[in-house]
Amino acid sequence: MLRTRHKTPTLVSMWMLDVFCCALGCVTLLWLVSNRDAAQEAQRNKAAISELAATRSTLLATSQELEATRRSLNAEIDNLKAKLLATTTDRDTTAQKLAVAKAEITNLETKLAKSTTDVASLETQLAKTAVQLTELDDELAKKTKESKDLTMRVAALTESSTDLQKLLRDKDAEREALALKAKKAAEQLDDADAKMRAIAKAADDAKADLAAMRKSGDELATAKAATRDLQKKLDDANVNIVDLQGDKKKLADKVDQLRIESDAKFAGIAMTGRRVVFVVDMSGSMKLVDDKTAAPEKWPIVVETVTKVMRSLPDLEQFQVVLFSRTARYLFAGGAWQRYAGAESQKAVREKLLNEDPVGDTNMYEAFDLAFRLKPDGLDTIYFFSDGLPTSGAGIPPDVKNITENQRIDYLTKHIRQSLRTVWNPERDAKRVKINSVGFFFESPEVGAFLWALSRENAGSFVGMSRP
Q1: Where is the signal peptide (predicted)?
Q2: Dihedral Cα 376, 377, 381, 385, nearest 10 deg
């Protein structure tokens, strides 16, 4: 058998050398990698240090800014605390005011509920008033008819008075005739008495004449009976004359009373006023029936109506006339009161008005403003003559543009009525002026409603004149 012989190993073999070289390469590679990583880490650290320094600087600046902000915030906090305290005080005050306001709101709600009830009541009352107005219109128509009937009765009574006067004259003539007959009868009686005395004296001397004496006695009895009949007729005639004179006086008193009542009314308007302004519309429509139909007789009718109203005022002492169209002016210069002198004043007004030519718009506001300037000097009544609604003057709000004609008229009429209630003629005024209105060619419900409301709100009356 062969013996295995082992070779003694050498210290370094090629294989080990290869391993060693590889290990050394790995170590070197690891060292290089570590060195590179260390260099990169050093760079990163350097960059981190730089960034840290910058951050430290930024942090310092931020810290300073934060300190400043903190101080500002502390100051603002103190300010806010003061405001909060003030706000709290205001809140408490507001809470108190709110409580008071809530109480007032509750009170107002109560008043509102009451007002709602009052409005409902007023609406009911308004409905009743409308019914009453209709009844009043009917009553006015009846009164107008009664006035016409009274006028006819006055005419009939006047005619009857004439007949009575004629009858009295006839009775006076009859009485004179009866008196003459009585006188003749008395003379006949005296003659009969004389004859009787003569016959009585002759009876003793001549009984033979007894038959003649008896005949004379019969004649005397007949004469006495005729005398008694004539005296009775005379007494009856005197009684009839006294009765007729009493009836005549009663009829005359009744005629005078009817004439006074007739003169003291103008189509249902009570004729009152001592210091009176006649406000007369002389716009272009006062010589027109409508926009296309001329009425040359209309303005003279208006003038005659003004003078008739003036003539019918029993207590008129002073007057003035205001004419209005685009503007308003006094008919008598200066606007002073004119002394009323009866027919002379009526003639002056008639002539001046007939010389006017109606033209232009209807500025009622300026007319009333001019008329009420005489109120401090004793103005107590206005008679307003017109045929339309206001078309110009004060009352359009300055911010209102491009309005229709109906809107314009609505603004103007409301402004006039409001000015009368609050400025010119308030209800609380002890010296309130009465306004009576006369509407001409009364065909428009709007015109009638406005003039009626104008007069009703100012303690007056309204009448609408029909087409002539």
Answers
A1: none
A2: -90
Domain contains 100: no
Closest listed residue to residue 467, CA positions, set 447, 442, 449, 446 = 442
Q: How far apart are CA 389 and CA 439, in angstroms?
A: 11
269 DSSP β-pair partners: 266
How many CB atoms are closer than 10 A to CB 376? 8
pLDDT at 211: 56
**DSSP codes of every residue in 320-388:** EEEEESSSEEESSGGG--EE--THHHHHHHHHHHHT----S---HHHHHHHHGGGGGGT--EEEEEESS
What is the C-alpha to C-alpha distance for residues 24 and 28, in angstroms, rounded to an integer?
Answer: 6
Same domain, 246 and 291: no
Give SS3 for 276. Answer: strand
Whether 249 and 302 map to the same domain: the answer is no
Confidence of residue 263 (pLDDT cuts 50, 70, 90): very low
Judge if 254 and 285 occupy the same domain: no
Top mean-pLDDT range of 62-66, 211-215, 257-261, 361-365: 361-365
Average pLDDT for the chain: 79
Let me know whether 290 and 374 are in one domain: yes
Q: Which two tokens stand for residue 91?
A: 């809140």
If one compares 8 and 67, the residue with the highest pLDDT of the two is 67
Whether 431 is covered by a domain: the verdict is: yes
89-139 pLDDT, tens per residue?
888 888 888 888 788 788 877 887 777 777 777 777 777 766 776 677 666
Per-residue tokens: 305:
């109506």
Range of the domain at 394: 266-464
* 297 in Cβ contact with 305 (< 8 Å): no
Whether 427 and 460 share a structural domain: yes
